[in-house]
UniProtKB/TrEMBL annotation:
It comes from the Bacteria. Residues 29-141, 142-203 form the Aminoglycoside phosphotransferase domain. Pfam families: APH. This is Aminoglycoside phosphotransferase domain-containing protein. The lineage of its organism: Bacteria, Bacillati, Actinomycetota, Actinomycetes, Frankiales. It comes from Candidatus Protofrankia californiensis. InterPro entries: AGP_Transferase, Aminoglycoside_PTrfase, Kinase-like_dom_sf.
Length: 261
């Protein structure tokens, strides 16, 4: 069974099997599809849930990351509570099943077009603060900070970070690379707000430019390999272009240097 062929009713049954206390479970709607997962909003005896079916060949790594997600949620980091997960559910074709609480809101990419001009800077300031909080509870890096993984509420305010199954045990400086490439180009005020929320607008950590340079190179090198494997030619070419510029600059041209004022 292909991921795209999964019926939401089967996901609902799988969630009931994983969390009997959630019964009865019924599907409400499908969420934005990821590259390696599909997610649904579900109604249940525990309230609204998100059921996510993932396709991964790195099960042990993802399970470790999910355990970290559960831990940091318990420490007050603004992320959805993780209610259960299993590495393999036969009800969804033997794939990984993840169940989390559903939080009302929109991801920041979807919400942006209807938000006031200055509202996104406020959201990103709060995102920077949330990321700082995450880093302070011993999670080195979120690994996937960009607009679709930032939840905002109906008033356009930051609510939570989403999709912590990308957590990586690397330098936290890595969490400044994707935002610079995917959110801040042409929007230095967003970058400034994010840095201000994180707490580095006025005082940078030790060796910060050097750490950003290494983080940039690592993201670009691993990204070229990833985009090649998933056959996304446009992203592969973008990463190659950036990687060539980084190499030609001897690492001085890290992504953050081009977006801040």
């Amino acid at each position: 069974m292909k991921l795209a062929e999964l019926a939401p009713e089967r996901v609902a049954v799988a969630v009931e099997h994983l969390l009997p206390e959630a019964a009865p479970v019924r599907p409400l709607r499908t969420l934005r599809e990821g590259r390696s997962h599909r997610s649904w909003v579900l109604d249940s005896g525990l309230g609204r849930l998100v059921g996510k079916v993932a396709m991964t060949n790195r099960t042990e790594v993802v399970l470790h990351r999910l355990a970290e997600h559960r831990r940091v949620a318990g420490l007050g980091v603004p992320v959805p509570n993780l209610l259960g997960f299993t590495p393999s559910s036969e009800l969804v074709g033997g794939r990984m099943l993840i169940v989390a609480e559903y939080l009302d809101g929109q991801d920041a990419e979807e919400a942006f077009s209807s938000m006031p001009v200055d509202a996104m800077a406020s959201v990103l300031r709060s995102t920077g603060a949330a990321l700082r909080q995450l880093h302070q509870v011993s999670v080195p890096a979120f690994g996937d900070v960009y607009l679709p993984n930032i939840l905002v509420d109906a008033q356009g305010r930051f609510r939570a970070l989403l999709d912590l199954e990308h957590v990586r045990w690397v330098d936290p400086a890595m969490d400044f690379v994707k935002p610079a490439m995917w959110m801040f180009e042409g929007r230095p005020e967003w970058a400034d707000a994010f840095a201000d929320g994180y707490g580095i607008a006025k005082a940078q950590p030790p060796c910060w430019p050097e750490r950003l340079s290494v983080a940039t190179g690592l993201e670009l090198l691993t990204g070229v390999d990833y985009w090649t494997r998933v056959r996304d030619e446009a992203m592969r070419e973008d990463y190659l272009r950036r990687l060539r510029a980084w190499v030609r600059s001897d690492g001085v041209r890290h992504v953050w240097s081009s977006v801040t004022t």
